[in-house]
Specification:
23% of the residues lie in helices and 47% in strands. The chain has 148 residues and is an alpha+beta fold. The mean pLDDT is 91.
């Protein structure tokens, strides 16, 4: 599936079209049992998530691969079903040191019977953190595409 990535300094934008309707894709990002099916850059990952889907609500995603545990947590800033999610992002044991939470905006657009996802991740302290997150998001979106 075609994807476009535009990497600006300290910001990452990833576009992906997935073969599922927008409501289904939005649900995959917001329902723990759905998140647990795909939210890992490594398809071997065992995922455990918790979601309090409201503005100000928290989420946490833990991924276990072999004996390594990593993931992310944060707070929802904006929720517009099925069009948009905005949340803070703090990595957990990700090998990337980020002193403050970064910000993720995920937008979902109808593309016929498919969905165009535009993910913008902002606030990286350096290009290494941005580039490592780029690889993580690419892996996660590959995994999402395979389960939808």
């Amino acid at each position: 599936m075609p994807q476009t990535e535009v990497i600006a300094p300290l910001e990452l934008i990833v576009n992906r079209t997935v073969n599922a309707p927008r409501e289904r894709v939005f649900r995959a990002w917001t329902v723990p049992s759905e998140i647990d099916r795909w939210f890992s850059p490594d398809p071997r990952g065992k995922i455990k998530s918790s979601v309090n889907l409201r503005v100000g609500g928290e989420y946490k995603i833990e991924v276990t691969v072999d004996d390594r545990v990593f993931g992310a947590s944060g707070v929802y800033k904006e929720i517009v079903p099925p069009s948009r999610l905005v949340f803070t992002w703090t990595g957990i044991n990700c090998g990337v040191t980020v002193a403050e939470a970064t910000l993720v905006t995920v937008e979902f657009f109808d593309a016929g019977d498919k969905t165009q996802i535009t993910l913008t991740h902002q606030g990286f302290p350096n290009t290494d953190a941005r580039d490592r997150h780029n690889q993580g998001w690419k892996g996660c979106l590959d995994h999402l595409e395979s389960v939808l």
